[in-house]
Amino acid sequence: MNSVELDQVSRRYGRITALDGVSLSIPAGSFVAVMGATGSGKSTLLQCAAGLDRATSGHVRLAGHDITRMRERRLTRLRRDRVGFVFQSYNLLTELTVRQNVLLPVRLGAPRRRGVDDSLDAVGLGGLGGRKVGELSGGQRQRVALARALITAPTVVFADEPTGALDPTTGGQVLGLLRRACDHDGVTVVMVTHDPVAAAWSDRLVLLRAGRVVADDPTPQADAIAARLQNVFQAA
Ligand SMILES: Nc1ncnc2c1ncn2[C@@H]1O[C@H](COP(=O)(O)OP(=O)(O)OP(=O)(O)O)[C@@H](O)[C@H]1O
Ligand SMILES: [Mg+2]
Fold first, then answer.
1. Ligand 2 mean position to 37 CA, how many Å?
2. How many domains does the chain have?
């Protein structure tokens, strides 16, 4: 089964074509990295796939549902119950505790398919539930965001530059946790990144140029990814 399917998806903003006829099937339990130059449509792809933005044309299926013309309320519920998000900027409430942040989706009505302590243990933050998020380091915050994404045992986690604000060591820990969610819990991960070392954690590498998929292959080693990016940019 596929967790995400895009069929000829285009997204135009006025005269700008951010996505141009993208077709992509992402099987359940896979880890896909999306790369490409700035402005190539990576975030737009992620948002259309996650039902945060609407395709101008084409079809999108998410967690077994055609969301192309799904009503906003149903779509919101589907996202809440089946999808986790991790962003570069964490999107946490710094005045609340770690525990309160992790429970936020549940407070908003999402199913609690894992315990808070279990979720925090899974990201190496066991015992920190009572701390205010504002007092944590960047790497700890991103792990809170991951625990929050995983508490509902989502079908898919979408991550947009999840390690963009982290040093390589801390970033590596977060990537290891995404990899683990995929391998141990069967979570599908779709991750946008600029970093070949981050992308090397994935199973499959999709390269975008000017809103189109220009390569879609099993992920090579980091140095080969860097070389491939060079080629894509030079050809642009
Ligand atoms: N809300 C919007 N309104 C108008 N244009 C937009 C909007 N969002 C994105 N775009 C345009 O669509 C194109 C693709 O943007 P997108 O954010 O998907 O790129 P990206 O690959 O994620 O870039 P980056 O690496 O800088 O994050 C860009 O030309 C951008 O200016
Ligand atoms: Mg982006």
1. 9
2. 1
